[in-house]
Amino acid sequence: MEGSEEMVVAVIMVGGPTIGTRFRPLSFNVPEPLFPLAGHPMVHHPISACKRIRNLARILLIGYYEEKEFTLYVSSISNELQVPVRYLKEDKPHGSAGGLYYFRDIIMEDSPSHIFLLNCDVCCSFPLPDMLEAHRKYGGMGTLLVIKVSAESANQFGELVADPNTKELLHYTEKPETFVSDLINCGVYVFTPDIFTAIESVFANREDRANPLRDTSFESLYSSTRTSVPKGFVRLDQDILSPLAGKKQLYTYETTDFWEQIKAPGISLKCSALYLSRFRATAPGLLASGDGTKKAKTVGEVYVHPSAKVHPTAKIGPNVSISANVRVGAGVRLINSIILDDVELKENAVVINSIVGWKSSLGRWARVQGDGNYNSKLGISLLGEAVTVEDEVVVTSCIVLPNKAINVSVQEEIIL
Amino acid sequence: MKALILVGGFGTRLRPLTLSVPKPLVDFANKPMILHQIEALKAIGVTEVVLAINYQPEVMLNFLKDFEAKLGIKITCSQETEPLGTAGPLALARDKLMDKSGEPFFVLNSDVISEYPLKEMIAFHKSHGGEASIMVTKVDEPSKYGVVVMNEATGHVDKFVEKPKIFVGNKINAGIYLLNPSVLDRIQLRPTSIEKEPRDYITGLRLYLESLRKKSSVKLATGSHIVGNVLVDETAKIGEGCLIGPDVAIGPGCVVEAGVRLSRCTVMRGVRIKKHACISSSIIGWHSTVGQWARVENMTILGEDVHVCDEIYSNGGVVLPHKEIKSSILKPEIVM
């Protein structure tokens, strides 16, 4: 394989505004894929993981957000990483496999030998080079990244069964009601270009099913719940993985690192912490440190944007990200929080288990806190854009929509 | 002249503070409650104070020895063997209160904090020639208390109505009486009880400090870090960048570190408030500590020797003595 001309293309599915409702009120300002985790947009983490693939030709972001949402980001990241990154807008959602198929000409431009498919809302260590090597050995059409999770949580995802020796994917089912397996689909795949043929046959079988005489397609074996699907809509999981399981086409590569699906702002805080601690190993220069003399004291992993100003008497961390132009006043304490751009935190303010939105401001001795339960709706306090919390006010486990002024303490409320 | 202070009960309403000391010895504006009263009595010429107590007499007596010497006033105790309510103790103390002079004597409830216009009361008592004078005070919500229905012009008392359902008057029994010795003849020695609504400690502090302000007392603190009425004991230390007040009392030996915000609260002897903490509407008991960046509010009461860890939030926690608070208290609750 050394010195071969085999190119690799990476495709990252970023979704669109309808998926983004789960990220409100933060998604009012920025599309979910650009929301910062550990100081960098969510999509940046899979993108920089792709950079580690040898012979990477280009990275394509596919979604149905407006193009202008991604223009700036895409050009700056292309520049920074010295690899072409492009955003392709679907005219309508096509499903994860349908989107891939829709842009197949662009994807196949460099005649890549392999295509990575990643979901933007996945938080993990993206062991892509290792996955590619395993895939080449298996010699199948595709390889899925998989991980073991607790039996109780497995049914929220796609559960699968793999052969312990050959690692072949034997069985796959999406969000089953009964327990199938504790091994789940991480949402990261590598395929050979045969994937397009497989997607094509899904279309062909659908047309055939319109013909009432034809009933032996493998689709019909699994299709009891699928009635009408929009034209061109192909889901990778149900339409490709399930039917092809057990046919020596699909294989699995197991990761033992962290894995989370970023489906709500609360979890994004947890993922930000996971990426921050990963920086400790992969990019320690990105992390801030200080001992309270010239620079503020840091505890654990902390990211501070170079343009942010932090008073030396503040104490930051663990698990804190501070974005651009933030002003952190004297005696401020931040724990397990994301502070977005242009926020002002006045003296002695405290933020714990919370996300403070762009341009917000906290008064002196103000306190914004959550109980830290990532899975409960109000476990992490969220302040939208330009929220003001007055001096000495306490906000506990609340979601506050943009442009509100909070002048009395509140607890466990959604403030519209 | 003599006075009887009805110390009485267990002070359950001021728990957890009264788990450590008897109620009359709980500090109020940096001075044990009972001392406020004894000093006021001494000022108008009372030479002997009798304390009617039924609980922890040893602690009280020890304490009183100190005061006797310092103030030059005789203090004795009359101990109830069973709770006698508020009138019973008078009968019990009869021998101590009666003397040949036939002078009237004061009776005070021990949890009364007021401006003590005792001199005026003596004059009033002499002028009407009746057997007893009761101090009354006007309140906004009389039905919480015992209302005294009286002739506004003469002050003659018509009747008492306990917690009236309809408006009968807005003057309530303030808990200070001036009685002729003949009253003692009317009381038999058996339990009689009168309910009394507890005063809000924090409100009481505010009123007390307000009255100090009116008298332009030099005791009140001043400075750019002080807002409103604040009492700071001379042995307490306050750090930089703090904002203290309104309505705060800081006791002897306290240390308030830099960047602390205190409002509407009492900080008792020996307490340390660490940097950047914020305390409002709360009582911090003797020798407790409040950690860095902690937030204590909404009628949090810390008993003696309670330690609130760094960054903890307490919303109305009532914490018994000798506890360490390591996790936040989000809703008012009692921590045993």
Automatic annotation (TrEMBL), chain A:
<feature type="domain" description="Nucleotidyl transferase">
    <location>
        <begin position="10"/>
        <end position="211"/>
    </location>
</feature>
<dbReference type="GO" id="GO:0016779">
    <property type="term" value="F:nucleotidyltransferase activity"/>
</dbReference>
<dbReference type="Pfam" id="PF25087">
    <property type="entry name" value="GMPPB_C"/>
</dbReference>
<feature type="domain" description="Mannose-1-phosphate guanyltransferase C-terminal">
    <location>
        <begin position="299"/>
        <end position="415"/>
    </location>
</feature>
<dbReference type="Pfam" id="PF00483">
    <property type="entry name" value="NTP_transferase"/>
</dbReference>
<dbReference type="InterPro" id="IPR050486">
    <property type="entry name" value="Mannose-1P_guanyltransferase"/>
</dbReference>
<protein>
    <recommendedName>
        <fullName>Nucleotidyl transferase domain-containing protein</fullName>
    </recommendedName>
</protein>
<comment type="similarity">
    <text>Belongs to the transferase hexapeptide repeat family.</text>
</comment>
<dbReference type="InterPro" id="IPR005835">
    <property type="entry name" value="NTP_transferase_dom"/>
</dbReference>
<dbReference type="InterPro" id="IPR056729">
    <property type="entry name" value="GMPPB_C"/>
</dbReference>
<dbReference type="InterPro" id="IPR029044">
    <property type="entry name" value="Nucleotide-diphossugar_trans"/>
</dbReference>
Automatic annotation (TrEMBL), chain B:
<comment type="pathway">
    <text>Nucleotide-sugar biosynthesis; GDP-alpha-D-mannose biosynthesis; GDP-alpha-D-mannose from alpha-D-mannose 1-phosphate (GTP route): step 1/1.</text>
</comment>
<keyword id="KW-0547">Nucleotide-binding</keyword>
<feature type="domain" description="Mannose-1-phosphate guanyltransferase C-terminal">
    <location>
        <begin position="226"/>
        <end position="335"/>
    </location>
</feature>
<dbReference type="InterPro" id="IPR050486">
    <property type="entry name" value="Mannose-1P_guanyltransferase"/>
</dbReference>
<dbReference type="InterPro" id="IPR056729">
    <property type="entry name" value="GMPPB_C"/>
</dbReference>
<feature type="domain" description="Nucleotidyl transferase">
    <location>
        <begin position="2"/>
        <end position="191"/>
    </location>
</feature>
<keyword id="KW-0548">Nucleotidyltransferase</keyword>
<keyword id="KW-0342">GTP-binding</keyword>
<comment type="similarity">
    <text>Belongs to the transferase hexapeptide repeat family.</text>
</comment>
<dbReference type="InterPro" id="IPR045233">
    <property type="entry name" value="GMPPB_N"/>
</dbReference>
<protein>
    <recommendedName>
        <fullName>mannose-1-phosphate guanylyltransferase</fullName>
        <ecNumber>2.7.7.13</ecNumber>
    </recommendedName>
</protein>
<dbReference type="Pfam" id="PF25087">
    <property type="entry name" value="GMPPB_C"/>
</dbReference>
<dbReference type="InterPro" id="IPR029044">
    <property type="entry name" value="Nucleotide-diphossugar_trans"/>
</dbReference>
<dbReference type="GO" id="GO:0004475">
    <property type="term" value="F:mannose-1-phosphate guanylyltransferase (GTP) activity"/>
</dbReference>
<dbReference type="GO" id="GO:0005525">
    <property type="term" value="F:GTP binding"/>
</dbReference>
<dbReference type="InterPro" id="IPR005835">
    <property type="entry name" value="NTP_transferase_dom"/>
</dbReference>
<dbReference type="GO" id="GO:0009298">
    <property type="term" value="P:GDP-mannose biosynthetic process"/>
</dbReference>
<keyword id="KW-0808">Transferase</keyword>
<dbReference type="Pfam" id="PF00483">
    <property type="entry name" value="NTP_transferase"/>
</dbReference>
